[in-house]
């Protein structure tokens, strides 16, 4: 059994990472939810305490970040990019000519930002065990290829709205509220979406989002 420590923005991201990792790793996995903490309520994991990208950043500046790999096989760090140009994140989306930067440049700078307070010797010794889930521009964008086959499959803006447009056509009244995606109703919608993901489909759908693709590459490397 492999154990994964998770640092992420919220319970919706937590549920998504759990499901994708289990499908990719193809074995029973143990998850230690470091940020946000989770607890079981009526058979479901619920968020305990606050989430958000600021807490992801601050959690990368704690002893728990390093201790996570003393007690677990791997550490997964997830963060969305939609607010990356805000302080204290501080990663610009455009260059000096006001042109959009490449996903690869943003990805590399975001990882550097996440690791800025992590001891370099520790990182070099453990970098094969640290997995990054950088979501352009939020984790919901990863799921668009489940519903779209046109250019919307690789969209990185308005992803929740695009998902809701298709979810509204499904049975069950599934819907992701913009300001309440960590609630009970949203949780059932994420579970509905995640059930659509088959292991054999992950390499295909991940190619539509640079951060998802890099995450899958890292997961493939640890399986090897």
What's the quick description here?
The protein has 224 residues and is α/β, with parallel strands linked by helices.
Task: Report what the structure shows.
By secondary structure, this protein is an alpha/beta fold. The chain has helices at residues 11-25, 53-59, 63-71, 103-114, 120-126, 159-167, 184-195, 202-206, 210-223, and strands at residues 2-7, 29-35, 37-41, 44-48, 74-80, 130-135. Strands 2-1-5-6 form a four-stranded parallel sheet, sandwiched between helices. It has a two-stranded antiparallel ribbon with strand order 3-4. A hairpin with a 2-residue loop joins strand 3 (37-41) and strand 4.
Question: What order do the helices and strands come in, and which of them pair?
Answer:
Blueprint: E1 2-7, H1 11-25, E2 29-35, E3 37-41, E4 44-48, H2 53-59, H3 63-71, E5 74-80, H4 103-114, H5 120-126, E6 130-135, H6 159-167, H7 184-195, H8 202-206, H9 210-223
Parallel strand pairs: 1-2, 1-5, 5-6
Antiparallel strand pairs: 3-4
- Radius of gyration, Cα only, in angstroms? 17 Å
Name the poorly predicted regions: none
- Give a short account of the largest sheet: 4 strands, parallel
Shape: globular
Give average pLDDT, whole number: 92
Number of helices: 9
Read across the widest sheet, the strand sequence of neighbours is 2-1-5-6
Q: What is the terminal separation in angstroms? A: 15 Å
> How much strand content do the residues show?
15-25%
Order of helices and strands: EHEEEHHEHHEHHHH
Q: Tell how many strands the DSSP assignment holds.
A: 6
SS content category: alpha/beta
Helix content: 40-55%
């Amino acid at each position: 059994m492999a154990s994964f420590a998770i640092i992420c923005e919220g319970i919706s991201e937590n549920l998504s990472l759990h499901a994708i990792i289990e499908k990719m790793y193809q074995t029973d996995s143990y998850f230690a939810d470091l940020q946000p903490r989770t607890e079981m309520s009526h058979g479901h994991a619920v968020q305990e305490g606050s989430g958000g990208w600021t807490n992801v950043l601050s959690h990368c500046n704690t002893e728990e970040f390093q201790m996570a790999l003393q007690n677990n096989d791997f550490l997964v760090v997830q963060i969305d990019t939609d607010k990356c140009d805000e302080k204290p994140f501080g990663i610009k989306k455009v260059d000096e000519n006001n042109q959009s930067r490449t996903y690869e440049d943003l990805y590399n700078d975001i990882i550097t930002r996440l690791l800025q307070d992590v001891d370099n010797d520790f990182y070099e010794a453990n970098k094969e065990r640290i997995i990054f889930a950088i979501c352009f521009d939020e984790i919901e964008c990863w799921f668009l290829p489940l519903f779209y086959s046109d250019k919307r499959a690789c969209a990185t803006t308005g992803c929740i709205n695009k998902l809701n447009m298709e979810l509204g056509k499904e049975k069950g009244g599934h819907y992701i509220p913009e300001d309440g995606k960590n609630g009970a109703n949203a949780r059932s919608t994420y579970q509905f979406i995640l059930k659509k993901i088959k292991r054999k489909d992950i390499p295909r759908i991940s190619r539509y989002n640079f951060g998802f693709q890099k995450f899958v590459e890292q997961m493939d490397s640890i399986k090897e």
